Amino acid sequence: MEIPASNATRLFCLYGFLVTSPLFSRINADGKIRQVTDPTGNVNLSPFQQWESAYECLQNISQSCSVKYTLTEAGWMNVTMADKADFCKSGGCGEHTKAVLTCIHLVKRDYKFTNKATVQDLNFTIINGCGFGFNGTTFISDARRISKNQIAILISILAALFLLMNLAD
Known about the structure:
mainly alpha
């Protein structure tokens, strides 16, 4: 049975509408409208949505914290030794900053701030600073990072050794 051209066109348009409409809607898979106030409730299917949710986590600002202590994309917390008591008190900015970092970790685990600090680096800075005192800097670990240049050099050395072993025979 052949479908007339006008019905085939209608069917094609209906199919196209049904396929593209979820792509442009602002509704999550569970049917709820996206909540900007809770980025962890977003369905993070793409890297763009993960970055968007991490940005929304950073927009969570506490009224009890000074603007000086607000965590930004820069990753620098701007806390000094004199600010330790105010920042680390129970219910203070330290707890709020940890909550923001947890939010970022939940929506984008590999998030790096502008200063190349990770969520784990900032958590370590807060824990260490509240225990021993802040020095105005953010701890950034290099131990678990290996650069692309180091990997390229390692692969080149291994390839050269492989060629030397095979050419020697």
